[in-house]
Amino acid sequence: MEDVIIIGTGCAGYTSAIYTGRANLSTLILSGTQPGGQLTTTTEVENFPGWPEGIMGPDLMMNMQKQAEKFGARTEYATVESIEKKEDGTFIVNTTGGTHESKTVIIATGAAARWLGLPNEKELVGHGLTSCATCDGAFYRDVPVAVIGGGDSACEEAGFLTRFASKVYLVHRRDELRASKIMADRALANDKIEPVWNASVKSYNPDASGEMESITLESTNGGEDRQLDVKCVFVAIGHVPNSSFVGDLVDLDENGYILQTDGTKTKTPGLFAAGDVADHVYRQAITAAGQGCAAALEAERHIADSE
Ligand code: NAP
């Protein structure tokens, strides 16, 4: 029986593990399909306190893992399929690799990229359609590409892609970016980025071999449809929380985010939620880390109160 099982290896998960490991609680971290979480798909993180020159996202996550393991936390690569609560108040966590028992569970599974939901979207992923510029940008050198979205992610992806692409269209459904001013200004000042306002993607148009050739854009303010010849489309329209496996031990809001009842507590005593799986407001590395810390302290208190 573990003291704490932490599901997820992003900022929230590893911060929880640093705290529970350091509190001498036996801690098992279960990583999902994306070890290290969303920051492993980003480049430079400029706003994590303590790194005045910035730090690369994957490096930050490797450091966090090292720090958690230094205090005795163990990481296992398995995807959680369900959680059950036993009558004695402890938990069974069923994973693809087997079953674990724990006195407390911290859900820190984050969120996954949102897609547009167009008919041929699934088939095109990996063939000129992606949600990760860091992963795939270098494949599209000296060709035009498009980024869909108007938030910080879209601006960041667009800026990164200018290192490779001949031109980056930034396609947004409104005429004003949602991104923070610094990110928006930086994107709009970049000569290689051309904003395409008031437009949404009507269709992805692959060539005969199934690779992206162009997209058709629909005007959102009554204008004409337009075609953009692009070899790759980077979708950056936000995220969906990874909460579907939890079942009725937690309540979800209408978008699938776990509802926290008091700090990081959920409606089930001993079960906590931290980071992007529960937070649709701030969604920052540092706020996820903060919630991870809070959940660890709550788990520690829960165990002390139960004994
Ligand atoms: P976001 O802020 O939710 O922005 C999503 C963007 O996609 C919005 O512009 C939205 O349009 C658009 N969109 C949503 N659904 C769409 C659809 N079906 N079709 C077309 N467009 C659609 O998401 P995000 O950019 O991923 O950022 C998430 C959080 O991470 C934010 O808090 C952000 O500050 C943070 N972040 C920070 C950094 C950084 O500081 N380095 C980098 C990346 C992300 P509307 O504007 O019209 O709603």
Provide the descriptors you would attach to this structure in a database record.
2 domains; alpha/beta; seven-stranded mixed β-sheet; elongated; FAD/NAD(P)-binding domain; 307 residues; 7 helices; binds NADP nicotinamide-adenine-dinucleotide phosphate
Account of the protein in words:
The chain is α/β, with parallel strands linked by helices and 307 residues long. It folds into two domains: 2-112 and 239-306, FAD/NAD(P)-binding domain; 115-235, 3-Layer(bba) Sandwich (FAD/NAD(P)-binding domain). It has seven helices and 19 strands. It has helices at residues 11-22, 57-70, 121-124, 133-136, 152-161, 181-188, 285-306; strands at 2-7, 27-31, 44-45, 55-56, 74-77, 80-85, 91-95, 98-107, 111-113, 129-130, 144-148, 167-171, 193-196, 199-206, 212-219, 226-229, 232-235, 239-241, 271-273. The strands form five sheets. Strands 1, 2, 5, 6, 7, 8 and 19 form a seven-stranded mixed beta sheet that branches. NADP nicotinamide-adenine-dinucleotide phosphate is lined by residues 47, 116, 148-154, 156, 173-174, 178, 180, 200, 236-239, 283.
What is the CATH H-level superfamily of the largest domain? Answer: FAD/NAD(P)-binding domain
CATH topology (fold) name of the largest domain: FAD/NAD(P)-binding domain
Kindly provide the name of the CATH class of the largest domain.
Alpha Beta
| Rounded average pLDDT | 95
C-alpha-based Rg, rounded? 21 Å
Write the CATH architecture name of the largest domain: 3-Layer(bba) Sandwich
Number of self-contained structural domains: 2
Secondary-structure element pattern, one letter each: EHEEEHEEEEEHEHEHEHEEEEEEEH
Beta-strand residue percentage = 25-35%
Helix amount, in percent?
A: 10-25%
Compute the number of helices: 7
Secondary structure tally: strands? 19
Measure the end-to-end span: 14 Å
> Overall 3D geometry?
elongated
- The stretches of 5 or more residues where confidence is low (pLDDT under 50) are none
Bound small molecules, which ones?
A: NADP nicotinamide-adenine-dinucleotide phosphate
